[in-house]
Amino acid sequence: MESSKHNLIEIFQTEDGSKSLLRKDIGESYHSHFGALTETNTIYIDYGFRYFCCLDNKEQVNVLEIGFGTGLNAIATLKNSNQRKIFYQTIELYPIAQSIAENLSYGEQLSLKEEFNLIHKCNWEEVVEITPDFKIKKCEADACSYDLPKDFFDVVYFDAFSPEKDSDLWSEDMFSKVYDSLKKRGVLTTYCCKGEIKRRMKKVGFSIAKLPGPKGKREILRAEKK
């Protein structure tokens, strides 16, 4: 059963030289074909993590990722931590196999091979120290029913599959739960900029900004808890 599930995943190379995955059963990729690393760096690192760090020069930043996927967002955050202490929590219902993760080569590409492998190998449901400044807690769960702490996170990477493929994760209830989990001045970024998604975010209290997206994506969304 496990091997057949992994047979539904195909590795492909994107335009910027980084690799990504295709879920053949739902016909959706984990990243843009125009560039996995470019997408991560633009939407989540530049518009999310770095933006927050410019707003608040705090020593520790708590990051929540909805949809762990390939682990690219996590290792890119470690790469760009700039001596800040990071607590990184991620929620993923369908973790990929270790063998698939190793073939993505993100660790080599970012010169963090050991750290990337450890991020994937470390136990789920435990807080694990990857480096003295980066701790991660991976949770194998449905984010819709997972209890998030209140007023805890500074940055949220909302990187679930599209609303057409995973509608429950893009519901008003889900955004309300994420909003409550953010501290004041907290920031959420996502690749999805659909009108209905923006309306749901605004309804729960977020302040919304549309930003230029990476190649292949005209606009992306940043939401803030003012």
Report on the structure:
This protein is an alpha/beta fold. It has one domain: Rossmann fold, CATH 3.40.50.150. Helix content is 31%, strand content 28%. It contains eight helices and eleven strands. It has helices spanning 2-6, 36-55, 72-79, 98-102, 106-109, 113-121, 172-181, 195-204, and strands at residues 9-13, 19-23, 28-29, 60-66, 85-91, 127-131, 134-139, 153-158, 182-190, 207-212, 219-224. The strands form two sheets. Strands 6-7-5-4-8-9-11-10 form an eight-stranded mixed beta sheet, sandwiched between helices. Helix 2 packs across helix 3 (72-79) and helix 7 (172-181) crosses helix 8 (195-204). The longest helix has 20 residues, at 36-55. The relative contact order is 0.15.
Topology:
Elements: H1 2-6, E1 9-13, E2 19-23, E3 28-29, H2 36-55, E4 60-66, H3 72-79, E5 85-91, H4 98-102, H5 106-109, H6 113-121, E6 127-131, E7 134-139, E8 153-158, H7 172-181, E9 182-190, H8 195-204, E10 207-212, E11 219-224
